[in-house]
Amino acid sequence: MIEQSVVHKYLRKNKKFPHIWCPGCGHGVIMGSLLRAIDKMGVDRNNVAVISGIGCSSRTPTYLDFNTLHTTHGRALAFATGVKLARPDMLVIVVMGDGDAVGIGGNHFIHAARRNMDLKVVVYNNNIYGMTGGQASPTTPSGKKATTARYGNIERSFDICDLARSTGANYVARATSYHVKQLENYIYKSFNKKGFTVVEAVTHCPTTYGRLNSLKEPVAGMEFQKNNFIMKNLWDKLSDEEKQVKFPMGEFVDVDKEGFVTKYLNLIESVRQGD
Amino acid sequence: MIKLLQGNEACAYAALAAGVRFFAGYPITPSTEIAEIMSMELPKRGGKFIQMEDELASMAAIIGGSLGGLKSMTATSGPGLSLMQENIGYASITETPTLIVNVQRGGPSTGLPTMPSQSDIMAAKWGSHGDHPIIVTYPHTVPEIYNETIRSVYLSEKYRVPVILLLDEVIGHMREKIEIPDENTIEKFDRKVPTVPNDWFFPFEGNLEGVPPFASFGEGYRYHVTGLVHDVDGFPTSKHSQIERFMNRLIGKIDNNVNDILKWEEYNMEDAEYAILAAGCIARTARDTIKVLREKGIKIGLIRPVTIWPFMEQPLINATKKIKKLFVPELNLGMLSLEANRVLKGKLEVCPYNKINGEIIYPSELEKFIEEEI
């Protein structure tokens, strides 16, 4: 009951409901975790921006009572970079799907990470392009089916957390729409850090990915997450064979390198003193 | 203060004087000096510069900066303009003021990076899918680049539209004498901000000119911005009546304010029997040509659009009422002449003179062409 009221505090009631997500979609669970994490921050909501690209997950800002920006496909991080530099004190949260973040927006993703731009990224990863009807995405696992991979995906898939780690993010973590508590904690922790942070929220798409890959019941998607995502320290001890079918979750990176905004504000100060 | 400046330098300093405090861009010849100057000068004024990973991101970042409350710009050339088209459409539909400087080079594709061309006249107007409002300005001297940069920032803020400032490579890189006014004497214009509380604010409801007041992010108006067609409250709509109302207002911001947005120059037109329609560096060729032809007794004048989009439809009709032939020299295969023909509807013979070999048009060749046509 208490948790419900936390979430409802931040929804744009009477404005944009019902939402567009399918029954059984995991996106609402992630949005709930996101809102509880924001609430825990205790920040003025006028000083929060939620920015997204295009896709199912990118409809999140529409429903939220903050400064919200629903941009073009893949470009959310570039828009967010502008907002953050104009408003350095603002908590700028970027919500993207897997196709948005590491497909069409892959270049923006690696460069925002390289710059250590002070943006708080939450990637809803459902391994598919859901909004357009289930086409293969850069995170569709090899061998799995999609409407543009009817015979099974022959491509390799991106590991979003590996990508964020190797390109320089300050904080990288993964949880799932089943592991709600961890997800909320990781998002909250990322909000408290400077620099570029990525929380990958694995979610299920019963409508497209599920239907094509024997997980069409929403519960089956949740059970898959429950049974196959295990904490990183345990996953590390698995045999190579086991690692093929199980997935690590938890915190992968937690460092405090100076973020871009801090550096730029220092630069302004030193240039002005030099004048 | 009198200075000897390049066109690109004049553009950068004018933008700073106009209050631009955010620049995001990607290096590209022949525009790069603008980014270089901004990276040096913005931090001195507390502004922000960032070199993005490409032009898609540059355009996106300046929209973000503008929504965050800073006057924002980028600078590019043809290939970059192609990449920016996606988010130029976004700036149009979300009514986010942005300045895009396009120092033109020859195209298509990588084309002629260091040579002059006027090949983006149509791309500037039509480059982005869908009907979208846009203003395009086209100065022809270094001092005019300074003034038009300031006016472009002003128009973009006033009408909440992206403005493209078209420059020719030869003027971007040419040095010319310019008297720079004191920054404090330049008229400051602030965005019109909402005067009602959040609950009463409709972020996309136009004023008398069709332009909504602008609430920057962080000012207490927690509204929604989307590239989907939206209602006055900013949320996506699929109701036909709302779509129509929105699109009419969006396009109407330009169509209903043409007199305020248009700017053009007429030179030696009082007694003219013939006229040249030319913009940018080719207007300078035309001016020299006119002097020589007048000495030979040919009564000829110049009509020069400064605001090139929206096009000077009525002014062109008015200015050419007594004209026998209209000559249209340009560094492309006929963009201005196509527009002139559309506006004049065959009432006047339009004679195009086109050149696309990477050279400017010299006065001597234009003189010869006009003499033959007369």
Read across the widest sheet of chain A, the strand sequence of neighbours is 2-1-3-4-6-5-8-7
Q: What is the CATH homology-level superfamily of the largest domain in chain B?
A: Thiamin diphosphate (ThDP)-binding fold, Pyr/PP domains
Please report the two chains with the greatest interface, counting residues with C-beta closer than 8 angstroms to the partner's C-beta: A-B, 40 and 43 residues
What pattern of helices and strands is seen along the backbone of chain B? EHEHEHEHEHEHEHEEHHEEHEEHEHEH
Architecture per CATH nomenclature, i.e. the level-2 architecture of chain A: 3-Layer(aba) Sandwich
Q: What's the overall average pLDDT of chain B, rounded?
A: 97
- Gyration radius over CA of chain B: 21 Å
Helical fraction of chain A? 40-55%
> Class by helix and strand content of chain A?
alpha/beta
Please write the CATH class name of the largest domain in chain B.
Alpha Beta
- Give the helix/strand class of chain B: alpha/beta
Features:
heterodimer, A: 275 residues, alpha/beta, Rossmann fold, 8 strands, 41% helix, globular, B: alpha/beta, 2 domains, seven-stranded mixed β-sheet, 13 helices, 15 strands
